[in-house]
């Protein structure tokens, strides 16, 4: 671990220990006071005490959390001895639930009675009892959950959920609900189906927005579980929490934006969430059940890993106060980004980023298969949160580069006054609300900052209590002991650096509470939140008390930035004082005129070079014309173990490895000739404690330094440490050699193959796989493929990370549920320790009846380009196949009944009918023609692109309006919606020429949409007007404009957007509008949409023809 991260880790551990003692004190206060417990004030008092409670009280609290002897009553629990499999503890409801025998009622029979030392195989029927007994001897027993068992006494099915603790096996038994489809150890396959949709949405979300990711996760869990409220909690660096995403059923108070103190979720509970990723409380009002333990046991069994573990009374009271009777929580665990990136590995520390929390106002039970699906979804969500954090790290690096740019810009100013009087200024260096420069007894203020007298008071306090400090940072001046902190109003946090003994540079931040807004809190004057009850309002009040007089903490890179500025300014001011000159003139003379003479000029150049070297975050060294080291910064001293004093004056060639002697000599010779080399790689020796780790590999850019006369006087080497990357490269080089050996094996056509049975046990492992992995067939056959053979911990073939495990699980589950699975990139560490990178393709194995009995997995090497091409090709083929199947099915199913309808209509036409009946039959015939036309529209792209041929027929508006309105009458009649035809009679019955069927199709579509937006008893008005132009003496061009106006709600904006957009992203309803508009364009028309206060109108224009003087 890098030494730079040790202090941060120590601070974090100290904060956790301190917070745990505060949690213990609150726990004790609650147990003593109950009804009189004032949560907000208790939190404030506990966090302000230096010694919140004794070690004895803290130990008792942790013991209570870990050794809880109560479970929730929706299931029962049995503990077995790990060696004998005999019962050593059970919940008091277990005998009655599993054997139908109450402990309070005597029984004559000795069989199937549960007690200490019982053999549980006598309680359950085969094959469940055999499966359970076999699982108990399995190493990673949790991989087999759940195991379906049937009670002999009652025949009731239960899920047995097993986990291992020291010396014991704990089995939770949960009843299978009557309407639930049972699942088994292979049932993780079925559980995947629950989460498949949600995983698909998360998988294809664009990156770059943690808010969008959390909002989507909350929405999917809300739909998946059916809880009244689903929230995403995020833990901040100081362990306080915030609700950053939420979805609720109507009528619930919002918690979005709620901040709560660290005590709301104690550290002990957070530790348990790291172990048990899913936690369910079915009914906070239910009476918990006691667990009876064999008195002869020399130790207390811990039940903290049980799915049935009862919640603490304090938490149950909190839930009831907020009318949340049931809850369901999923932990979001990610990689700890505080670790040194060069030392990160597969066993990287994890941390609890946050929680996905579900609340319900009534008791709610989530069956194990759905809980397993949610846990799987949470793991998948966690990997995406990890990716978002990687993006944040990249942004952090950009901020550092921005800071360095600002520092360089400040060098060109009138130092020091230029850094407060010009733009950018010191407030652009780090995030702050104000800044102050105290220079030569004058105060220069910027932004939200203390008054001049208050600044003088702070300076006096620093001289009295921090006289030896060259810099100071705090997020609370009040906690730091400054007596005038409360009088500073909006200023809470401060960072400062001393430039000289009397000159100081300050940065200030406002309080956290002033930046926090929660929609559920009462911010209006005269309204107060109830801060006494254990409730989100009291949590929010407690949080405001905890962060009172406190700002957001200063980040490490911000402190580094201000210290870098301190070094630059201190050197500049020292030179100014020595020379007795105004420093701005020195800067102007140095950077604009460059008139340097003799030794003074050389010293100025050297001073500037040393300053840049010392503040750099990469290894930098410099040598003079003789090759003697005259620059050796802190970074390279840290890497080599050679101090600046020891390195200065040494010849550079004595410090590098013998193998790099010629390379460095050549680089220096060329640099002294003015030929600067880039990317020179060489190795440099290590010393002292670093000697055992071997030489450091650097990639160097050589820069020649010249005097004003153009003579090269020195060489500066800016380096990058690639030691770690080089070791990784060597590993990959060895892997490539292994790959070639496999490809050129005696049987190159046989790829590595492995397979499983329907329960997930490895059943196939061919010779090519043996050669690839280093594991023989005997070593893997009969082991669980996921967990024992391939896994992230303790597996034969260790996967690279948790994401690889999840992706492999998705492929396996798809195949086992008879779905098509795409090829994925796959990798694992072989027995030799080499990493194997390949493509995995899985296919189902079926018996002679077509039942899936397992799967085969094929591995092959593939480039990334090939992987991407295969993936997109498969997606395109799937989409095209689905569309063709759907279209063929619709056409086939509609054509037959339509033929029957046409036959019956023709039969009716041959009978004696009145004029009104014949008119109705004609309208029916027009509707049938419309259906036939739509069925023939196999080329929708042709319609969209304007390639459709129109058919010219003679018709009247009355005919197509009758056919169009008839298509919506089944909807309008029950709703009492009135359709009013305001078109003049002569226009209705005028003979027109055009594609009547297409115009009828368009009118029917817009009528249907208008009806859907019209309330009951509403009105739809159809009107028309036209203008005519003579084409010749026989034919007129008719510009017809039809309007459909409806009362009630406006048409959804999204549909209007799609109608005037393209068909690419249109929905099923939207594509119909797009096609209707394109049909109008083919008829030289279009559609407009208008909306006023109470009505909405579609105005449809179309170009038709009519014969001059031809009226019906």
Please supply descriptive tags for the structure shown above:
1112 residues, 7-stranded antiparallel β-sheet, alpha+beta, disordered N terminus, 7-stranded mixed β-sheet, 33 helices, 40% helix
Helix-strand makeup class: alpha+beta
Round the mean pLDDT to the nearest integer and report it. Answer: 77
Q: Bin the strand percentage.
A: 15-25%
Strand order of the largest sheet: 1-11-3-2-6-5-4
- The helicity comes to 40-55%
Ends apart, CA distance between termini: 95 Å
Number of strands: 37
The poorly predicted ranges are 1-6, 103-111, 339-347, 519-533, 580-599, 739-745
Main sheet makeup: 7 strands, antiparallel
Shape: globular
Given the structure, what is the number of helices?
Answer: 33
Descriptive notes:
- The chain has 33 helices and 37 strands.
- By secondary structure, it is of the alpha+beta class.
- A hairpin with a 4-residue loop joins strand 24 and strand 25.
- Helix 6 crosses helix 24, helix 31 packs antiparallel against helix 33 and helix 32 crosses helix 33.
Question: How is the secondary structure organized here?
Answer:
Blueprint: H1 6-33, H2 39-48, H3 55-66, E1 70-71, E2 76-81, E3 87-91, H4 94-99, H5 128-136, E4 147-150, E5 157-165, E6 168-175, H6 188-203, H7 210-225, E7 229-235, E8 241-248, E9 259-260, H8 267-275, E10 278-281, E11 289-293, H9 313-321, E12 326-335, E13 350-360, H10 368-411, H11 418-421, E14 434-439, E15 442-447, H12 452-465, E16 471-474, E17 491-498, E18 504-510, H13 536-546, H14 556-579, H15 583-593, H16 598-615, E19 620-624, E20 629-632, H17 634-640, H18 644-647, H19 652-655, H20 661-672, E21 680-684, E22 696-706, E23 712-721, H21 723-743, E24 753-757, E25 762-765, H22 767-773, H23 777-780, E26 790-791, E27 797-799, H24 802-816, E28 824-829, E29 835-846, E30 852-860, H25 864-909, H26 915-935, H27 940-945, E31 953-955, H28 957-966, H29 969-975, E32 978-981, H30 985-988, E33 992-994, H31 996-1012, E34 1019-1030, E35 1035-1047, H32 1053-1059, H33 1068-1082, E36 1086-1091, E37 1095-1107
Parallel strand pairs: 26-27, 32-34
Antiparallel strand pairs: 1-11, 2-3, 2-6, 3-11, 4-5, 5-6, 7-8, 7-13, 8-9, 10-12, 12-13, 14-15, 14-18, 16-17, 17-18, 19-20, 19-23, 21-22, 22-23, 24-25, 24-30, 27-28, 28-29, 29-30, 31-33, 34-35, 35-37, 36-37
Helix pairs in contact: 1-2, 1-3, 2-13, 6-7, 6-10, 6-24, 7-10, 10-14, 25-26, 26-28, 26-31, 28-31, 31-33, 32-33
């Amino acid at each position: 671990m890098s030494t730079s991260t040790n202090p941060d880790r120590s601070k974090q551990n100290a904060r956790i220990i301190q917070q745990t003692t505060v949690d213990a004190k609150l726990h004790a206060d609650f147990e003593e006071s109950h009804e009189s417990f004032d949560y907000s004030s208790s939190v404030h008092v506990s966090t302000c005490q230096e010694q919140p409670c004794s070690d004895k009280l803290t130990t008792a609290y942790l013991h209570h959390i870990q050794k809880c002897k109560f479970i929730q009553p929706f299931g029962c629990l049995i503990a077995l001895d790990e060696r004998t499999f005999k019962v050593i503890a059970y919940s008091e409801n277990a005998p009655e639930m599993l054997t139908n025998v109450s402990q309070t009622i005597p029984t004559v029979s000795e069989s199937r009675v549960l007690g200490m030392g019982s053999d549980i195989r006598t309680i359950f029927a085969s094959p469940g009892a055999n499966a359970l007994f076999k699982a108990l001897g399995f190493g990673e027993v949790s991989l087999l959950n759940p195991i379906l068992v049937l009670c002999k006494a009652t025949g009731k099915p239960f899920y047995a959920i097993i986990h291992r603790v020291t010396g014991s096996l704990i089995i939770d038994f949960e009843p299978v609900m009557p309407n639930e489809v049972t699942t088994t150890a292979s049932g993780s396959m079925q559980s995947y189906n629950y989460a498949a949709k949600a995983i698909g949405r998360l998988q294809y979300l664009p990156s770059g927005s943690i808010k969008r990711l959390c909002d989507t996760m909350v929405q999917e869990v809300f739909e998946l579980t059916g809880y009244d409220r689903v929230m995403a909690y995020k833990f901040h660096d100081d362990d306080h929490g915030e609700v950053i995403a939420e979805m609720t059923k109507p009528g619930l108070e919002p918690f979005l934006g709620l901040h709560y103190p660290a005590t709301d979720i104690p550290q002990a509970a957070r530790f348990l969430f790291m172990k048990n990723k899913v936690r369910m409380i079915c009914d906070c009002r239910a009476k918990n059940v006691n667990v009876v333990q064999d008195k002869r046991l020399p130790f207390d069994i811990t039940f903290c890993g049980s799915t049935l573990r009862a919640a603490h009374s304090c938490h149950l009271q909190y839930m009831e106060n907020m009318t949340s009777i049931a809850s369901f929580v999923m932990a979001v665990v990610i990689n700890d980004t505080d670790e040194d990136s060069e030392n990160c590995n597969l066993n990287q520390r994890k941390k609890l980023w946050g929680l996905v929390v579900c609340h319900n106002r009534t008791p709610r039970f989530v069956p194990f298969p759905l809980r397993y699906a949610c846990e799987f979804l949470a793991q998948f969500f966690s990997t995406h949160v990890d990716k978002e954090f990687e993006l944040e790290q990249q942004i952090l690096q950009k901020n550092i580069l921005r800071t360095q740019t600002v520092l360089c810009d400040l060098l060109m100013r009138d130092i020091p006054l230029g850094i407060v009087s010009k733009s950018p200024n010191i407030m652009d260096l780090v995030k702050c609300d104000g800044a102050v420069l105290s220079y030569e007894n004058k105060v220069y203020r910027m932004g939200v900052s203390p008054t001049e007298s208050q600044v003088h008071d702070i300076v006096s306090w620093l001289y009295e209590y921090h006289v030896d400090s060259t810099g100071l940072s705090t997020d609370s001046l009040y906690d730091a002991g400054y007596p005038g902190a409360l009088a500073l109003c909006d200023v809470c946090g401060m960072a400062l650096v001393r430039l000289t003994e009397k000159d100081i540079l300050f940065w200030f931040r406002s309080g956290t509470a002033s930046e926090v807004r929660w929609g559920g809190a009462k911010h209006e004057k005269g309204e107060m939140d109830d801060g006494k009850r254990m409730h989100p309002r009291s949590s929010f009040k407690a949080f405001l008390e905890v962060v009172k007089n406190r700002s957001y903490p200063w980040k490490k890179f911000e402190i580094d930035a201000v210290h870098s500025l301190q070094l630059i300014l201190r050197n500049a001011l020292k030179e100014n004082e020595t020379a007795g000159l105004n420093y701005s003139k020195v800067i102007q003379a140095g950077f604009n005129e460059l008139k340097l003479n003799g030794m003074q000029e050389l010293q100025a150049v050297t001073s500037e070079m040393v300053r840049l070297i010392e503040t750099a975050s990469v290894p930098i060294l410099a040598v003079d014309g003789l090759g003697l080291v005259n620059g050796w910064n802190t970074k390279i001293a840290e890497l080599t173990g050679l101090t600046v004093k020891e390195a200065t004056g040494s010849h550079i060639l004595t410090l590098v490895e013998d193998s790099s002697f010629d390379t460095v000599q050549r680089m220096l010779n060329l640099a002294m000739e003015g030929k600067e080399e880039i990317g020179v790689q060489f190795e440099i020796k290590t010393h002292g404690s670093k000697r055992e780790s071997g030489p450091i590999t650097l990639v160097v850019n050589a820069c020649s330094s010249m005097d004003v006369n153009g003579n090269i006087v020195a060489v500066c080497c800016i380096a990058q440490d690639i030691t770690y990357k080089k070791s990784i490269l060597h590993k990959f080089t060895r892997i490539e050699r292994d790959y070639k050996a496999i490809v050129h094996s005696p049987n190159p056509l046989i790829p590595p193959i492995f397979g499983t049975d329907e329960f997930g046990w490895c059943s196939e492992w061919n010779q090519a796989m043996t050669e690839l992995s280093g594991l023989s067939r005997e070593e893997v056959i009969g082991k669980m493929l996921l967990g024992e053979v391939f896994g992230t911990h303790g597996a034969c073939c260790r996967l690279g990370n948790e994401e690889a495990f999840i992706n492999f699980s998705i492929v396996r589950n798809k195949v086992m549920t008879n779905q098509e699975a795409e090829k994925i990139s796959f990798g694992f560490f072989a027995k030799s320790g080499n990493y194997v990178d390949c493509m995995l393709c899985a296919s189902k194995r079926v018996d002679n009846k077509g039942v899936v009995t397992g799967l085969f997995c094929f591995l092959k090497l593939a480039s990334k380009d090939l992987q991407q091409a295969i993936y997109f090709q498969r997606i395109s083929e799937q989409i095209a196949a689905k569309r063709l199947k759907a279209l063929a099915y619709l056409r086939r199913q509609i054509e037959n009944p339509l033929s029957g309808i046409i036959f019956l209509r023709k039969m009716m036409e041959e009978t004696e009918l009145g004029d009104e009946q014949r008119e109705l039959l004609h309208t029916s015939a027009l509707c049938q023609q419309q259906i036939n036309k739509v069925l023939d529209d196999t080329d929708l792209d042709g319609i969209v692109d304007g390639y459709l041929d129109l058919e010219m027929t003679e018709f009247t508006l009355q005919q197509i309006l009758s056919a169009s309105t008839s298509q919506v009458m089944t909807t309008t009649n029950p709703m009492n919606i009135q359709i009013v035809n305001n078109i003049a009679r002569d226009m209705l019955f005028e003979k027109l020429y055009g594609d009547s069927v297409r115009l009828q199709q368009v009118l029917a579509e817009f009528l249907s949409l208008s009806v859907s937006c019209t309330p009951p008893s509403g009105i739809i008005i159809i009107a028309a007007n036209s203008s005519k132009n003579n084409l010749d003496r026989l034919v007129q061009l008719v510009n017809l404009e039809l309007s459909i106006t409806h009362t009630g709600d406006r048409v959804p904006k999204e549909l209007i957007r799609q109608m005037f957009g393209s068909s690419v992203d249109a929905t099923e309803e939207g594509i119909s509008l797009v096609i209707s508009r394109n049909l109008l364009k083919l008829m030289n028309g279009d559609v407009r949409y208008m909306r006023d206060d109470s009505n909405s109108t579609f105005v449809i224009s179309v170009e038709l023809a009519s014969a001059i003087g031809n009226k019906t």
